[in-house]
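Throughout this chapter, every protein is written as a compact record of paired, labelled lines. The reader may check this reading against the record printed directly beneath this paragraph:
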Amino acid sequence: MATSGTSLPATLGTSSPLINGGISRTQGWDTEVTWRHSIGDFKYSVRATLSDYKQTIVEFPNKSSLVSDFYAGKDLGDIWGLTWEGWFQSPEEATERNAIINQKWVHNSTFGEGDAKYADLNGDGVINNGTNTVGDTGDFKVIGNSTPRYQYGIRLGAEYKSIDFSMFIQGVGKRDVSYQNGANSKQFLGPAQGPFHSNVYAEHLDYYRPDDTTSPFGPNTDAYFARPYSQNGGKNNRNYRYSTDHFLQNGAYARLKTIQLGFTIPKNILEKYKIDRFRIFVTGENLITISDMLFYDPEGIRGTFSGAASYPLSKTISTGINISF
């Protein structure tokens, strides 16, 4: 593995140099099935592909066994996070629980109504990541894996006299997506970015509102997002700083990537015009997508709308003509 060297103390003032160290193992498989057949003037074909892989660290010079680094037994793509136990439903509930379980490691402030409750998995009365080492991760655990599993594609084709048809479907059978870490984090702060944010969806309105709210949208105590703040200022770190199982979404999808229908004018009509082939076609792209994901296109989840690194996917219908002389 060409990777970072052994983790060094921050007091050194620089990062570890790259080294050839450690051993990883990638295991997987792929299969392809193709069928072609003709029935008189009708011809058709089907091609299906399916593949899967998993990469695991076998050895790595991580003497401290930090889980934030590579370590033996780690599956690449593992998502570590906290367990979400809901939103505080009242100031009294927040006060009572704050006296029992200290969540200030997540954010050094008081958690109140509409903020997140995190599970104290190890029962020590403090929400944290322990020593962040194998065997002592505090209240963190592996909540998912971002590796795209069971990637597949299906290609269909058919011809009947002058008419031709083709279709391609692709997708991923299993994948977990966490929005709080990495390039996507700024997009899921809920209404804290306000209605003046460049990209606001109807789903952003699904934020915590108490029973006595004056909001025109009414109360919403079983919301997807936490309560809003007039300014972020780090306050949303209470609820969005670390990955939680609540915000883990299913990244599996199926998409009709392309579909095309064409018609070729018979040669006996084209001969007098000295044209060898004249074909008219219509093509559709990305017309149907089956996905449970909110906000993002499942193929572009690494992009960010605010940074213009990802553009909302367009459904496209186009026509064209192929002429050969």
